[in-house]
Design a protein that fits this description.
The protein has 4 helices and 5 strands. The protein is of the alpha+beta class. It has a 5-stranded antiparallel β-sheet with strand order 4-3-2-1-5, covered by helices on one side. A hairpin with a 3-residue loop joins strand 2 and strand 3.
């Protein structure tokens, strides 16, 4: 429709206009792409140190408090990456538990299954403002 209109227009600038197609969107794409690359770089460069190891009793007390009071909890697992650094902490609410598994509901809405014996450290998160949740 636009090409037919442009071919009969009286102004020669409009008649001879060549649409650049996707090239006009390139600047928008690059700004979003570079912002995403910056976030990924920051995630890659962040190192997670192991916190103090907790006993099974201490971990169980934190998990029970988080479950019954519907509080957010942060879990650090005992596994390490190739460089000996800890993986990012898991954050969410305890949706349920059985003898060996904890069902952790994340802030994004999915549920992760965490083995109780793989938890290295657990802590409650209090007073999390809505503006801090990304």
């Amino acid at each position: 429709m636009g090409e037919a209109f442009m071919s009969y227009h009286q102004d020669p600038w409009i008649r001879e206009y060549q649409d650049r197609g996707m090239a006009k969107w390139l600047g928008f794409y690059l700004s979003e792409h570079t912002a995403e690359m910056g976030k990924e770089k920051q995630t890659r460069e962040t190192t997670w140190q192991h916190q103090q190891q907790m006993t099974d009793l201490e971990i169980s007390e934190v998990l029970e408090t988080a479950f019954f009071d519907h509080q957010l909890v942060t879990l650090q697992l005992s596994t390490l990456d190739e460089q000996g650094q800890a993986f990012p902490d898991l954050t969410g609410t305890i949706e349920g538990m059985d003898e060996t598994t904890i069902f952790l509901g994340s802030l994004e809405g999915d549920v992760q299954f965490v083995q109780h014996d793989s938890i290295y450290h657990a802590s409650l998160i209090s007073n999390l403002k809505w503006s801090d949740v990304s």
